[in-house]
Design goal:
There is one protein chain. The chain has one domain. It is about 75% helix and about 0% strand. The chain is built from 11 helices and no strands. The radius of gyration is 20 Å and the shape is globular.
Length: about 270
Amino acid sequence: MDLKIKNFGLVRHLDFLKENILIMFKLVTEFKTNFYSIVLERTVYLFVNILLFSILFNNFGSVIGWEFSDFILFLLLVDFFAVLLGIVTWKSWIRYEITLGGFNSSITKPINIFWFNYIHTLSYYGLLYTILTFFISIVFILYFNIVFMNIFLGISLFLLIGFFWLSISEFFRSLDWIMIGLSGISWTPFRNLNQGFKNFPSPFFKNFEFKFLFFLFPNFLIAYLLLPILKGDTVINLMNYVWFLVIGSIVLITCTSIVWRYGLSKYEAYG
């Protein structure tokens, strides 16, 4: 059996995406209890984080040059980033599909197997979190009186950072095709480092000479690039960072595709 990834019609893939988005919204409306529990959870979560950031501000605000509003805006950006990407990333790792033979049925479907695996499990929890966080963020954006052009540039950079992070996470996720469990071993410390940049934003490292080592982590980039843009500050060499994100995404997508092709060619060993 030919297990290589095949090219199928664009319309068919877009229809598949549309159907799964509709299913996700349907799940949101059918499980109202989840909505109320998430509202309560996000309220408590934001309260705890605001308390944490108030402690950081009182101790380090003058050291890193941030006002309390900067901490709050950073918190909202990081939180919204996580839940928005959670719509497509909050799912099981492919090692479960591999070991349980989950690809046995999907490889015969008239659709790209990577697209199928990536889209058919959109998280309605992620959607609920995103909707709630979006409205909270809008209130604060209006409060901060952010200039429209800065918002436009910020959204563009936000999406670019998001696509870059998706490319990274999918590359790590694909490593299970090389060795079962390799994704978890490599992804866990990477994810924890990114979380660390939420508790200690980029200004803590303003005197660190090798900041380029942190450009793989979105929480660092949000504080280093996105927050200054929204505030109207000048970001030196912004286009260099943009090209880094674009080229990095292309390289990661290419590597992920190669790993998937290799894994599918060896899939019979698991199936």
